[in-house]
Amino acid sequence: MLKLPIYLDHNSTTPMDPRVLEVMLPYFVENFGNAASRNHSFGWQAEEAVDYAREQIAQLIGADPKEIIITSGATEGDNLGIKGVFEMYATKGNHIITCTTEHKAVLDTCKHLEKLGAEVTYLEVQPDGLIDLKQLEAAMRPTTILVAIMYANNEIGVIQPVKEISAIAKKHGALFFTDAVQAVGKIPVDVNTDGIDIMAFTAHKMYGPKGVGALYVRRKNPRVKVTAQMDGGGHERGMRSGTLNVPGIVGFGKAAEVARLDMAADTERISKLRDKLENALKQIDETYVNGNPAHRLPHVSNISFKYVEGEGLMMGFNKDIALSSGSACTSASLEPSYVLKALGLGDDLAHSSLRFGLGRNTTEEQIDFTIKAVTDTVLKLREMSPLWEMFKDGVDIDAIQWAHH
Amino acid sequence: MAYSDKVIDHYSNPKNVGTLDKASKSVGTGLVGAPECGDVMRLQIEVDQATGLITDAKFKTFGCGSAIASSSLATEWLKGKTIDEAVKIDNMDLVEELNLPPVKIHCSVLAEDAIKAAINDFRSKNGLEELVFEQSHV
Q1: A346 at the B interface (CB within 8 A)?
Q2: Which domain holds residue A326?
Q3: What residues in B contact A329, CB-CB < 8 Å?
Q4: Domain boundaries, given as residue ranges, for chain B
Q5: What fold, for B5-124?
Q6: Taking the model in full, what pTM does it have?
Q7: Smallest CA–CA separation between A304 and chain B, in Å?
Q8: Which of A120, A214, A390, B113 is the Cys-Cys partner for A395 at CB 3.0 to 4.6 Å?
Q9: Closest CA of chain B from A126, distance in Å
Q10: Same domain for A225 and A369?
Q11: Domain-terminating residue out of A205, A226, A259
């Protein structure tokens, strides 16, 4: 029996794996110690659990456990990584390079730093969502201290050429930071082969608990330091103070281990389902897949259904299927997704997009149901759409003088 | 955001979806909104020229559920009204009837604008002066 509603919004968050919950439970009531309590067994037990988890997390990304700085999540990691470098390397320069499709946690952090004297270059992306390496190269300056480019995009799933980007940064003596929230645990990420100096990621996007994440900070070749953004007890090698969230960290560790061991099998199964979904929906006329299809996360598909509006479209099935739209009809600004607009999509296509985010628990039955529900709703709404009628009648919609309100 | 039952009902079973002959002298067409803003409404009325009574109304809308519901409800209200009565339909009446939240008030404004545009289109086709309206509540 198909159980409704179906969850297809795994880029927003993932359900916690029961294996993760199981290992966390003893650390709430019984083993409640503070990992920083160095002089009694409660503290030792907590510290041991954290050390083990730190190893599990490090192993997933090919790092040393000492390079893992525990945070509250990726927003904190983005802030600490970028602001921390800006402060720590202030004598070296003040120029940061990022791109327009980054998460707000990166973009708004950069905007904040501009007020404090940073110079920031926001690289445009190409229509397929990837940055242009030549533009990156051209943007490098002697004062460039950091290149901050995401590993994979949260809305369209495109994977940036991280190795090439890090090589360019290194050549010019800049550090490379990446927000890898969507990539870690989903595709192989290795900080050494990828040339990553600093990387933010989080547990809840990989079937772990919410409220815990990590910042990878390289210790060798080069040794990187970030200035702490919170003052306190000097935890996490002085880079992030605050009592450690022991059960969360234990869960994060387990989630990282499961992700590492199951990744190949999960990817194979999920990408087949994603391709089935995408190929079926592409059969509908005037449907466009957003983002480079070859360099893309295996579980994401972002599709624009021209002449129907995304939120209206979701209403047709949102009691049964949970997903996201690039339309921002609910926001006061009425602005659609800035990521889709950065690809050069017209506002109409951006308003018409849906993001499908499949996950570990997605089944073929759920995908079949989704294909039918989305197809039926698109066809129904097009019958109701004046734009579809104009398109069918050969009217040039772009030539109409629309009254903007 | 949860939708009101009335919005869901109009979205699931929209009333008066369709197209009237826009070349006909007895039909007034209002096309408002913009694709870039995420909503476009086309509302049409058919008027009995002898009595001034709206005998039919149709819509097609590109937009969210609230925009579809606002236009569907508007067409229901228009049928059987005279042009003079139709002019008085206020967007806040739609908001109230559909329980639209503040972020969706613009959908009702659009429906009111569509009604007025349809009426003016009918008037200008029939040699009448176009009415000048004040700004609706936003």
Answers
A1: yes
A2: 6-11+264-392
A3: 38-39, 63-64
A4: 5-124
A5: Sufe protein. Chain: A (3.90.1010)
A6: 0.93
A7: 13
A8: A390
A9: 21
A10: no
A11: A259
| Contacts A385 to B, Cβ<8 Å | 40, 60-62
Looking at chain B from residue 99 to 138, which residues have their Cβ under 8 Å from any Cβ of chain A? 103, 106, 109-110, 113
SS3 A70: strand
pLDDT per residue as tens, chain A (405 positions): 899 999 999 999 999 999 999 999 999 999 999 999 999 999 999 999 999 999 999 999 999 999 999 999 999 999 999 999 999 999 999 999 999 999 999 999 999 999 999 999 999 999 999 999 999 999 999 999 999 999 999 999 999 999 999 999 999 999 999 999 999 999 999 999 999 999 999 999 999 999 999 999 999 999 999 999 999 999 999 999 999 999 999 999 999 999 999 999 999 999 999 999 999 999 999 999 999 999 999 999 999 999 999 999 999 998 999 999 877 554 455 678 899 999 998 888 889 999 999 999 999 999 999 999 999 999 999 999 999 999 999 998 888 888 765
Looking at the structure, do residues A323 and A350 belong to the same domain, yes or no? yes
SS (H, E, C) chain B: CCCCHHHHHHHHCCCCECCCCCCCCCEEEEEEEEHHHCEEEEEEEEEECCCCEEEEEEEEEECCHHHHHHHHHHHHHHCCCEHHHHCCCCHHHHHHHHCCCHHHHHHHHHHHHHHHHHHHHHHHHCCCCCCCCCCCCC
**Integer Cα distance of A25 and A341 in angstroms:** 44
> Based on the domain organization, do A205 and A319 belong to the same domain?
no
Please give the C-alpha separations between residue A374 and each of A170, A349, B64, B93, B114, in angstroms, as whole numbers.
46, 17, 15, 32, 29
The partner residue sitting opposite A309, judged by closest CB among B31, B38, B42, is B38
Q: Does A231 share its domain with A161?
A: yes
Q: ipTM beyond 0.90?
A: yes
Active-site positions of A read 329
Contact residues, chain B, for A309 at CB < 8 Å: 38-39, 62-64, 67
